[in-house]
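I hope you will forgive my troubling you with a question about protein structure. Here, with my thanks, is the record as I have it:
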Amino acid sequence: MPILYRLDAPAQAVARCFGAEAGRDPWEGGHVAPGQFAPVITAGREAIAGPRPQHRTPSRMIPRLWGVPPPPSVQAGPRGGILTVRNLDSPFWIGNLRNSEFRCLVPASAFMAWGRASPTDGKRRQCWFACADQPVFAMAAVWKDSEVPSFALLTCAANAALRAEGRDTMPVILPPDQAAQDLWLRGGWDRAKALVAPYSSSLMQMRALA
């Protein structure tokens, strides 16, 4: 799973990229670590209770904390909140996944995962993965407001590029078309869950950092 990612664009530019309202999001660009606030794009229905409205609400971008507080029966891990959604059938997540207003997009320009150990010194490498076909891409996520306005990223099986570095999973990266992003934000779960799939390794770039 990703343990760090970057969003190298200011809030207004990111909002334009996804056709969302930036509001007062103070994001200026940089890296995001667990337990930090970062821009998240929602369908704009956080404060709307009851049945889905007939009119389309505009997408909006707001800061949310990466890491959902765990249920009372689960002890918080070393990173605090739950960073990723791995089991789509988990009772903790299924309500958020089936109700589209709780799904969201997390913009990023690259994410980091630990790669295989270096053959020279045996140290694990930081591998940064980016999309060759979209400088800023959307990772599929869900949001919760149990204690704080938070979010968790969805993961899926790793593609060939990440498997080559010993990874089993990767974040769910959405295609760069408005229809796919709109499906994740507003579509029924029966169709949206088809987006939970590995991104093509041929469309990804990787660089290792010391």
About this structure: The chain has a mean pLDDT of 90. The helical segments are 11-17, 91-98, 160-163, 178-186, 189-192. The two ends are 19 Å apart (CA to CA). Residues 36 and 65 are 5 Å apart (CA to CA).
